[in-house]
């Protein structure tokens, strides 16, 4: 198995389906999670819980340096958060291949302290399917 260097990862954003994706600057970490809801179908008399996989869901959390000059990356995410509009996100672990989804931005926050950089946290939830790219 070949391991990937996280430093090659890219996060890109686009405002329209089929549009051009732009790198989101300053990102140091991403958590991309896909889950399937479980539906309990257990009955009286069952000794063990029985389940079916239900609807799928995906979320992402970005962390990094806040870069207010990144108007086409971080700025697009903040604008989408404030307006309640969806964006298209690509997460490319090796810089070229990965996943794409339409998403709603659910959190956009900045944090700072005397002894550290101004950091950024952005979270989102998919609003449709995931495409493997």
Features:
133 residues; mainly beta; 8% helix
What is the oligomeric state here?
Answer: single chain
From the spread of the alpha carbons, the general shape counts as elongated
Please give the domain count.
Answer: 1
Low-confidence stretches: none
Biggest sheet descriptor: 7 strands, antiparallel
Largest beta sheet: strand ordering: 2-1-5-6-7-4-3
* Class computed from helices, strands and strand pairing: mainly beta
- Individual helix count: 1
User: How big a fraction of the residues is strand?
Assistant: over 45%
Report the helical percentage.
under 10%
If you average the pLDDT, what whole number results? Answer: 95
Number of strands: 7
**What is the helix/strand order?**
EEEEHEEE
Determine the N-to-C terminus distance.
20 Å
Rounded to an integer, what's the Rg over CA atoms?
Answer: 18 Å
Structure description:
It is built from 1 helix and 7 strands; from the N terminus they run ββββαβββ. With 133 residues, it is mainly beta. It has a 7-stranded antiparallel β-sheet with strand order 2-1-5-6-7-4-3. The chain is elongated and about 60 Å long. It has one domain. The mean pLDDT is 95.
What is this structure's SSE topology?
Blueprint: E1 10-14, E2 22-23, E3 27-40, E4 51-65, H1 74-83, E5 86-92, E6 99-113, E7 116-132
Antiparallel strand pairs: 1-2, 1-5, 3-4, 4-7, 5-6, 6-7
What is the structure about, briefly put?
Helices cover 8% and strands 56% of the residues.
């Amino acid at each position: 198995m070949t391991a990937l260097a996280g430093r090659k990862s890219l996060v890109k954003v686009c405002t329209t389906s089929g549009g051009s994706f732009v790198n989101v600057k300053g990102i140091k970490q991403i958590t991309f999670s896909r889950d399937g809801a479980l539906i309990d179908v257990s009955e009286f008399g069952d000794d063990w819980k029985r389940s079916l996989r239900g609807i799928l869901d995906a979320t992402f959390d970005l962390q990094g340096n806040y870069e207010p000059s990144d108007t086409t990356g971080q700025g697009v995410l903040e604008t989408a958060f404030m307006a309640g509009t969806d964006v298209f996100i690509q997460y490319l672990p090796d810089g070229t291949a990965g996943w794409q989804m339409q998403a709603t931005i659910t959190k956009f926050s900045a944090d700072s302290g005397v002894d550290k950089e101004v950091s950024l946290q952005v979270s989102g939830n998919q609003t449709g399917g995931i495409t493997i790219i």
